[in-house]
Design a protein that fits this description.
A six-stranded mixed sheet has the order 1-2-3-4-5-6. The protein has 178 residues and is of the alpha+beta class. The chain has a single domain, classed as Trna Endonuclease, Chain: A, domain 1 (3-Layer(aba) Sandwich). The relative contact order is 0.14. α1 packs antiparallel against α8. The radius of gyration is 16 Å and the shape is globular. It has eight helices and six strands, in the order αβααααββαβββαα.
């Protein structure tokens, strides 16, 4: 059972890393300095061994909800934390528990969403997110380029195309498994 859970964890991490890497590369190409930050980077092995009993502790919830990226904007001399999530449906579903944990521990960070919709990349400051039933309407989020203003239209278009192709492939794989 432990081996199967670890395999699932690493497969999920690999899928999520594709979009995290896209966001990271888009920001770096636009002149931002970006470092991996989240628990997948520093604590991935420990996280794969957590039991149901340990998953609910405050410390574990804080570590598990750690944002993925540390972004430095040289022009504004500003440091930001960004949590990246991919969703295959529009409107994207976000579990209220995730938002509550982010608000509790990381309210000054940002949630970036990659979704199969014309703009593809959306973002919102965690403190400004409302905890809703299970999703946020894209109208409640900002376009990625509105928060990260140094992103060029050319770079954004390039990464949108890559993300849409990857999202479509992800969707095809899910359908084949069912």
């Amino acid at each position: 059972m432990q081996k199967k859970r670890e395999t699932g964890f690493y497969n999920d991490m690999l899928k999520g890393n594709v979009y995290k890497d896209m966001v990271k590369l888009l920001l770096e190409k636009s002149g931002y300095i970006v470092y991996p930050y989240g628990y997948e980077s520093a604590f991935s092995h420990v996280r794969s061994m957590l039991t149901k009993d340990t998953r609910s502790s405050r410390t574990v919830r804080r570590i598990r909800s750690s944002p993925d990226l540390l972004v430095f904007d040289k022009d504004r001399n500003d440091l930001m934390l960004v949590e990246v999530k991919m969703r295959t449906k529009v409107p994207p579903e976000i579990k209220p528990r995730l938002v509550e944990n982010l608000k509790e521990f990381w309210s000054d960070s940002f949630l970036a969403l990659v979704v199969p919709e014309s703009n593809v990349f959306y973002v919102q400051k965690i403190s400004e997110l409302e905890t809703r039933r299970r999703f946020y309407r894209l109208a409640d989020l900002e376009k990625f380029q509105d928060v990260f203003a140094r992103i060029s239209e050319e770079d954004l278009s390039h990464f949108k195309d890559k993300a849409l192709r990857s999202l479509e492939e992800h969707k095809r794989q899910r359908i084949q498994k069912s």
